[in-house]
Amino acid sequence: MRIAQVAPLFESVPPHTYGGTERVVSYLTEELVRGGADVTLFASGDSRTRAELDPICARALRLDPECRDSLAPTIRLLERVARRAHEFDVVHFHIDYLHFPLSRRLGVKQLTTLHGRLDTRELQAVFDEFADMPVVSISLAQRRPLAQARFIGNVYHGLPLDLYRFEPEPDDYLAFIGRVSPEKRVDRAVAIARRLGMRLRVAAKIDRHDREYYEREVAGLFADPLVEYVGEIGEDDKGAFLGKARCLLFPVDWPEPFGLAMIEAMACGTPVVAFRCGSIPEVLDEGVTGYCVDSLEAAAAAAARAMTLDRRRCRERFERRFSAERMARDYMRLYGAIVEDRGGGVAASP
C-alpha cells in the first residue's frame, strides 16, 4: 500500500526535544515501513525516516530563528501534497483541519488524526461545515465535544517496544515532564511533592507564550529545595529520567486528548498518578499502571501507593496496550476500509 503521512512543520519528525504529534507520526511511519508499506513522509527537512522524505522546509519551524511567517511553509506543504496526492492509495493528515477545503476537492482517499483538544467553540462551526471529513480520535474522551464529526476509528498512541528500557530499581524522586503551562499544572506537582517530602525533578520546556505565566506563577516554586528544574530534555535523556523516577506526576487541568508522557513512563515500568481529566481513565489501568485522582490530597496518597506497585506489571500492560506495532496495525485496518470504501473503522484499542 502506498501511504502519505502529512506532518506538522513546527517540529521535525521525530522532534529533537519536546513534541508529541511529530513523535507519534515518526513511530507510526517507521512501523509502517517496517511492515512493508510504501510510505512518503511530508515533513521538515531535518526529519529522520526510513520512508521517502518530501522536505517542505529546511528545518523545523520552532528551531528556525529566521522564520517569521509559519503559515507560508504550511501553504507550501498543502500544495506539495495536492500535487502528489494521486500517487498514494491513502493520504493520512496530522495537521488538524487546515487541509479540509483542499482535500475535500482532491477526490483522494484520506483520513485525519485529530491530535489536540476539541472543546473550543470555533471548532463546532468547522465540523458542521466539514461533517463529511473522515477523522480519527486518539481517545474516546477526545470525541465528546464534536458529536457531529465523522469519526471512523479510535486509535491510541503507541511506542516502539525497544524505545525505553524497563527499570526495576528507581531512585528516590518524583518526575514531571511536559510543558510549563497553565493546563499542565506543574504547581500541583510541586504541592504533591511537598506533601510527601520527596524530591521532584521537572523536565519541561517553557514556550514564549507561557513565559509570563512561568514568571508569575511558577518561578518561585522552582526555588524550593525539593524541586530540581532540569529544563527541556530530548529522547536520549528521557528514558533515564522517567525510568529512575518512583512515580510520574501528571496533574493536568484540561481535557487531555491522550497523554503521551504517561505511556512513556509505563514503558519504563514507572507508575503514573494523574488527575481525572479527558482521556486519563482510558489510558491508566487503575491499580496496575497508576491511579486517577481528583484532589491534591488524593494525589499525595495515590503517589505513596503507586510507589509500591509492581513495575514489571506496569511494563507488561504497556506492551499489551501501547506498542507502535499495535498502533500501526489499527491504522492499516482503517486504511484498508477507506481504500475499499467499506466505511466504519476500528474500535478503541484494547
Automatic annotation (TrEMBL):
<dbReference type="Pfam" id="PF00534">
    <property type="entry name" value="Glycos_transf_1"/>
</dbReference>
<dbReference type="InterPro" id="IPR001296">
    <property type="entry name" value="Glyco_trans_1"/>
</dbReference>
<feature type="domain" description="Glycosyltransferase subfamily 4-like N-terminal">
    <location>
        <begin position="18"/>
        <end position="119"/>
    </location>
</feature>
<protein>
    <submittedName>
        <fullName>Glycosyltransferase family 4 protein</fullName>
    </submittedName>
</protein>
<dbReference type="Pfam" id="PF13439">
    <property type="entry name" value="Glyco_transf_4"/>
</dbReference>
<dbReference type="InterPro" id="IPR028098">
    <property type="entry name" value="Glyco_trans_4-like_N"/>
</dbReference>
<feature type="domain" description="Glycosyl transferase family 1">
    <location>
        <begin position="168"/>
        <end position="317"/>
    </location>
</feature>
<dbReference type="GO" id="GO:0016757">
    <property type="term" value="F:glycosyltransferase activity"/>
</dbReference>
